[in-house]
């Protein structure tokens, strides 16, 4: 398939270019270091919308709680991630970074980070080979041994397990923030193969509600509009999965007047969908009539070749889950089907009888591949990234033995702290418990206010 980079870009692979930043360093690999100034402006705009991370940076800068930390990271490289990385740097950490998705890197932001001295290995439109090469360049560097991992999707953790298992002797912990990556960690833990403590940021309330639910509620429409210019009123849509991401997608589409069906395996989520006014169906029951199919399950082969064969002409197919496993795209790469690139991130796949489906981002994550994400909501992630930062600080500074070789949830106190850092932006005023009220409820006046399972 053709590259997703703009055709006006230089088509030379970044791996074949000799680039240096203004300080003479070449320890990075980005599309074009000359875009750094443009990327810096984007980072500065993001900082304005990320009050919590900036507050954390200001508050902890003097203490340098991450002094000595060597963090290797693999996440989406956006302006918001840049604010996180520069915050980690301000807190004393050294970082090396790769992208967790081949299409979501903002080239100008990667250039700005490289210019300011961060070893970043990422560009938009990497090949599969480039993807693993970039991760390897972050990890396998002479004289630098990571002692913390920040992962989104588990690919970096997987690579170190596969190629450099001895590195885990020096690693104090892993922070993971996606459903897919957390699932992989629990599998390792169950098999007795997890050799360091891991912090599950994905299931923290701030991540689940704010990033997964509210962020997807905003960005699903944006991604679909930018790629297809479609009208939503009266369209029939099936959303596969009614977790937090599915809930956000369904709410947005319903508000725009779409007729929304939901598929679900979990009876609790299924009942929530019914109570929210959605028809619960099996995909087979509606596949011939729907105009849009959206996957958000974190599973694989949710939409199979059989489903794709039965879709109606011009059906739009896209994925809001982290991995590109939900739609069986590989089954469409056969001689009898014709692929037609319509525009960046949009392919028409045409059957012999002339029927076509519209496939977005080749089945990869729609909102970060095809559009940007609302910065303020991502600030909450980025503060979940701050939660990431807090989780890194917690694991890095934990006394020997506090965390065993297992997967831990972010402590509730930290979750509440993340939320409280955002309230000033809304000019919101929290009520404080009186001593009598706190005693009556059996709570500390300063929290945590909810049990860990909330």
TrEMBL record:
Transmembrane segments: none annotated. Pfam families: AdoHcyase, AdoHcyase_NAD. Binds 1 NAD(+) per subunit. Residues 212-373 form the S-adenosyl-L-homocysteine hydrolase NAD binding domain. Its cofactor is NAD(+). GO terms for molecular function: adenosylhomocysteinase activity. Pathway: Amino-acid biosynthesis; L-homocysteine biosynthesis; L-homocysteine from S-adenosyl-L-homocysteine: step 1/1. It comes from the Eukaryota. It catalyses: S-adenosyl-L-homocysteine + H2O = L-homocysteine + adenosine. Gene3D superfamilies: Adenosylhomocysteinase-like, NAD(P)-binding Rossmann-like Domain. GO terms for biological process: one-carbon metabolic process; S-adenosylmethionine cycle. Belongs to the adenosylhomocysteinase family. This is Adenosylhomocysteinase. It comes from Aptenodytes forsteri.
């Amino acid at each position: 398939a053709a590259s997703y980079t703009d055709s006006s870009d230089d088509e030379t692979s970044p791996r074949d270019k000799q680039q240096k930043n203004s300080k003479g360093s070449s320890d990075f690999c980005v599309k074009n270091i000359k875009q750094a100034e443009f990327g810096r402006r984007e980072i500065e705009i993001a900082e304005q919308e990320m009050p919590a991370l900036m507050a954390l940076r200001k508050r902890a800068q003097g203490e340098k709680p991450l002094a000595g930390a060597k963090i290797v990271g693999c996440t989406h490289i956006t302006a918001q991630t840049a604010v996180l990385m520069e915050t980690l740097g301000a807190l004393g950490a050294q970082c090396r970074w790769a992208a967790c998705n081949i299409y979501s890197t903002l080239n100008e932001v990667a250039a700005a980070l490289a210019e300011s001295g961060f070893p970043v290995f990422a560009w938009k439109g990497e090949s599969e080979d480039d993807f693993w090469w970039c991760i390897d360049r972050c990890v396998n560097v002479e004289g630098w041994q990571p002692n913390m991992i920040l992962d989104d999707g588990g690919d970096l953790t997987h690579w170190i397990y596969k190629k450099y298992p001895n590195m885990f002797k020096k690693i104090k912990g892993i922070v993971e923030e996606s459903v897919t990556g957390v699932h992989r960690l629990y599998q390792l833990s169950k098999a007795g193969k997890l050799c360091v403590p891991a912090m599950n940021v994905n299931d923290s309330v701030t991540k689940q509600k704010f990033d997964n639910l509210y962020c997807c509620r905003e960005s699903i429409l944006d991604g679909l509009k930018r790629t297809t210019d479609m009208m939503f009123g009266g369209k029939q849509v099936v959303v596969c999965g009614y977790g937090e991401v599915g809930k956000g997608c369904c709410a947005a589409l319903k508000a725009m007047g779409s007729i929304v069906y939901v598929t679900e395996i979990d009876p609790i989520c299924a009942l929530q969908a019914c109570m929210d006014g959605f028809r619960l169906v099996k995909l087979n029951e509606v596949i011939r009539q729907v105009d849009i199919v959206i996957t958000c399950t974190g599973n694989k082969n949710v939409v199979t070749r059989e489903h794709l064969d039965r879709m109606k002409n011009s059906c739009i197919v896209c994925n809001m889950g982290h991995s590109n496993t939900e739609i069986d795209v590989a089954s469409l790469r056969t001689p009898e089907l014709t692929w037609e690139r319509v525009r960046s991130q949009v392919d028409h796949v045409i059957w012999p009888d002339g029927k076509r489906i519209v496939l977005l981002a080749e089945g990869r994550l729609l909102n970060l591949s095809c559009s940007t994400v609302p910065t303020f909501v991502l600030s909450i992630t980025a503060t979940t990234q701050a939660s990431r930062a807090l989780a890194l600080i917690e694991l890095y500074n934990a006394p020997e033995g506090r965390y065993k070789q297992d997967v831990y949830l972010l402590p509730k106190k930290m979750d509440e702290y993340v939320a409280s850092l955002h309230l000033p932006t809304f000019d919101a005023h929290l009520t404080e418990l009186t001593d009598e009220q706190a005693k009556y409820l059996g709570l500390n006046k300063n929290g945590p206010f909810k049990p860990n399972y909330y």
